[in-house]
Amino acid sequence: MNRTAQDNWNIRLARREDAPAMPAIERAAGTMFERIDGLAGVAGQHTVPVERLLRYIARGHCLVAAHETSLIGFIVTEPHGRDLHIWELDVHPDWQGRGVGSALLRGAMIDARNSGFGALTLTTFAEVPWNAPFYRRMGFVDIDAANHPRLADELAREHDQGMPPGSRVAMIRDLA
User: In a 3-state reduction of DSSP, which class is residue 61?
Assistant: First the structure.
């Protein structure tokens, strides 16, 4: 298989100096939603603040994908009891479709399992191809948020912040 220079990327723990570049990746990834009816201007508007990213990085809950000296994607997680919650997973549109998001997610799964977490959780758009369908391919299943109060609260908060009703779903990936 022939590899191009753009195939040469890696996954690593995020560093403090990575934080300022991460919101630009999140905003760029958010532009992909402009072609989805009802979601233009919804996703990517409010990026994870750099101060919050620095806290996640300091705690070791952030992985990045890098090509040479540039970041091309990242995943941010936070412990909640025995669950590790995925707050954000973004890949710059120029790098989508090359396995970067899958690699970031697999890296988070490995780290979570090795750290003793029982599951990964998240909320995402139910019908957007690179959201819930992607996570389902990665072993996540939809859950009834009524049976998971923390995720029910998260979905309610997202609705209050302007997410279209019924557009979001809670998901879990067992790590046992």
Answer: coil
Judge whether 90 and 73 are in contact, CB under 8 Å.
Answer: yes
Whether 37 and 24 have beta carbons less than 8 Å apart is answered as: no
CA distances from residue 134 to 61, 80, 114, 139, 143 in whole angstroms, order as listed: 21, 23, 23, 9, 16
Which amino acid, residue 52? Answer: R
- Using DSSP's 3-state secondary structure scheme, residue 8 falls into coil
Question: Per-residue pLDDT tens for 93-106?
Answer: 999 999 999 999 99
C-alpha 104/C-alpha 75 separation (Å) is: 6
Q: In whole angstroms, what is the distance from residue 16 CA to residue 19 CA?
A: 6
What is the value of pTM for the model shown?
A: 0.91
Helices 22-30 and 50-58 sit at what angle, rounded to 10 degrees? 120
* In contact, 109 and 173? CB cutoff 8 Å: yes
